[in-house]
Amino acid sequence: EAGVVQSPRYKIIEKKQPVAFWCNPISGHNTLYWYLQNLGQGPELLIRYENEEAVDDSQLPKDRFSAERLKGVDSTLKIQPAELGDSAVYLCASSQKRLYTQYFGPGTRLTVL
Amino acid sequence: GQSLEQPSEVTAVEGAIVQINCTYQTSGFYGLSWYQQHDGGAPTFLSYNALDGLEETGRFSSFLSRSDSYGYLLLQELQMKDSASYFCAVRDQGQNFVFGPGTRLSALP
Question: Nearest 5°: phi and psi at B15?
Fold first, then answer.
C-alpha cells in the first residue's frame, strides 16, 4: 500500500512569491490534514478535510493561505504571497474516517528568502 | 486554550527503560496519541489511548490517566535507532489532534 505522497520535497522561493504544495493521501482515506511544523516544534494543524469539505480551517491564515481538495482525493495548499515567517515544513496526513491513526507524508520543506 | 507539556530532552543509555511524560489541558478530550519522528522524516504513529490504563505494543507502552490529564510513553530496551523526537497529541472535541512540543530522545552507546 502506497503511503501519503507529497511534492515537492523542497522549495526555495523569494518573499512575496506564490508557492503551492500537493498531497495525495492513502487510497480510501476520507480525512486529510495539512500541518505546519517549525523546527524543534510539534505539528500545528492548518486545515482538516472530510472528503471534499473543509470541516476545520480555523487555524488557516486566510489572507494568504488557501487550500482545496477537489473530488475528495488530492489536495493542494497554496501561499500567496509568501513571507519570511512561512519558512517551515508543511506536512500532509490522512486517516480513515473516525479512526485515530494518522499517516503522514514526508513533508515539503519551504524556505522563503 | 489548549496546551500540552513534554520534557524537551531525554538522554539514556542503550538497554535502559525510558519514560516520556505528557500533561495536557484541552477543551475536550477523546484520546492521547504518540508519534515518533526521526530527523528529516515524517511522524509515525506509535500508540493511542482512549481509556485509562496501559497499552503495550512490543517495546513501546503508553499510559493514560484522564483524571490527572497525564500520560506517558515507555520505551523498554532502548536502542540507538530509538533516537528521535517523540510527540504526544490530544484528540480534542473537534476531532482534531493538538500536538505537544516534542521530546528529543538521545540514546547513548
Answer: 90, -10
- Interface residue B45 vs chain A (CB under 8 A): yes
Give the model confidence (pLDDT) of A30-59 as tens digits. Answer: 999 999 999 999 999 999 999 999 999 999
> If you ran DSSP here, which 8-state letter would residue B87 be given?
E
A100 reaches B (C-beta below 8 A):
yes
Query: Which of B97, B98, B104, B105 is the best mutation test for A, with the most CBs of A within 10 A?
Result: B97
CB B90 within 8 A of CB B98: yes
Q: For residue B46, give the 3-state DSSP assignment.
A: strand
Phi first, then psi: what are they for A51, rounded to 5°?
55, -125
Q: In angstroms, what CA-CA distances link A78 with A8, A20, A29, B29, B42?
A: 13, 4, 22, 31, 21
Reading phi first (left if > 0) and then psi (alpha if -120 to 50, else beta), residue A84 is in: alpha
| Structure confidence at residue A2 as a pLDDT band (50, 70, 90) | confident
Which positions in chain A touch B91 (Cβ < 8 Å)?
100
B101 and B90 in contact (C-beta within 8 Å)?
no
- The neighbour count for residue A15, using CB atoms within 10 Å, is 13
Q: Find, among B78, B81, B101, B91, the residue nearest to B7 by Cα.
A: B101
